[in-house]
Amino acid sequence: MSDPALAPDALLREPWDGLRLSEEEALSSQRFGATFGIWIFIASEVLFFGALFLFYAAVRAEHAAAFASAARETNIVYGTLNTAILLTSGATAAVASRACNHAPLRRLTLWCLTLTALLGLAFLAVKGLEYREDIAGHLVPGPGFKLPEPSAQLFFGFYWLSTGIHGIHLMIGIGLVSRLVWLGWRHPERLPGNPQVEVTLLYWGFVDMVWLFLYPALYLAGRAG
Amino acid sequence: MSDAPSAAAVWRRVLPVWLGLMALLAVGCALAYAPLGAWGVAVSFGIAATQAVLVALLFMRLIEAPALIRLTAACGLFWSAILFTLTFADVLSRLTRS
């Protein structure tokens, strides 16, 4: 990173005297290490969510009709709205990650990080409204479940588990992005060029991608029938 | 990277992708109501996969990432493919649905 406006000494995580690297080289090694590390984490998360989707695919293969009628009970308006919200937050996150390595774009980075966190909160608010409607509509598996087919409860077991775990991931993302907003506001010199911005936004992008697959699995199945 | 792009230039690189993603969302939602039969699943997950590829390449910038990072990202998919293939080799052979 040869941008003279960046301050490697404010960004380096620890003294790198032992390796006798210049501060710029040390920061660029740390940046690569951070990106590499988050991608290893994302690859492990792909397997974690992959197992969930595997359950969905295997059970749907066996109980196609019950899954179709159960999926018709989800609210496609909330689902589509939330997909649009998350895609938009992905766009603001992408702008922030492109802007964060340039000191003159510090304000743009800060604004886009703020927008990203707010869109994440909007997603959770819509999800909360949807959960309330689902609970009122007896869509929680167990006694008094709305649909007669037993395997429809498997669909809603997946619905609650997957959206719950995705929601927890999103809350962690909102926390991490808010932390960067706070950092950039309190210590302006520590935001531009900080590898933590890219790491956080890569995590955000992954949480976005999980939802992109949850949307057809939960909301689009069974609509044509 | 000493000369920073303008804010407008950054938005110009992101907004077309966002528009494409929203268009795919609309198409996917509309096609879910079309009588495509068994193809419906393939279409809706195909659109989701296209969106995910766009997000990974252009929002998470895999397209400009070094080879090691791209390989790491591909590892998750590779291991998932093993997980799905071996599990379905078992599940599909024992389907009770006629």
**Distance, first to last CA of chain B:** 61 Å
Derived from helix and strand composition plus strand pairing, the structural class of chain A reads: mainly alpha
Radius of gyration of chain B: 19 Å
What order do the SSEs of chain B take from the amino end to the carboxyl end, as H and E?
HHH
Q: Given the helix and strand composition of chain B, which structural class is it?
A: mainly alpha
Unreliable stretches of chain B, pLDDT < 50, 5 or more residues?
A: none
Number of strands of chain B: 0
Radius of gyration of chain A: 21 Å
Q: What is the second-level CATH architecture of chain A? A: Up-down Bundle
Description of the molecule:
The complex is a heterodimer of chains A (225) and B (98). By secondary structure, chain A is mostly helical. Chain A has a single domain, classed as Four Helix Bundle (Hemerythrin (Met), subunit A) (Up-down Bundle). Helix content of chain A is 76%, strand content 0%. Chain A has seven helices and no strands. Chain A has helices at residues 8-11, 23-62, 64-71, 76-99, 106-136, 150-186, 195-220. The model of chain A has no long low-confidence stretch (mean pLDDT 93). Chain B has 98 residues and is an all-alpha fold. Chain B folds into two domains: 1-64; 66-98. Helices cover 72% and strands 0% of the residues of chain B. Chain B has helices at residues 7-31, 39-59, 67-91. Chain B is flat and about 65 Å long. At the A-B interface, α2, α4 and α7 of A face α1, α2 and α3 of B.
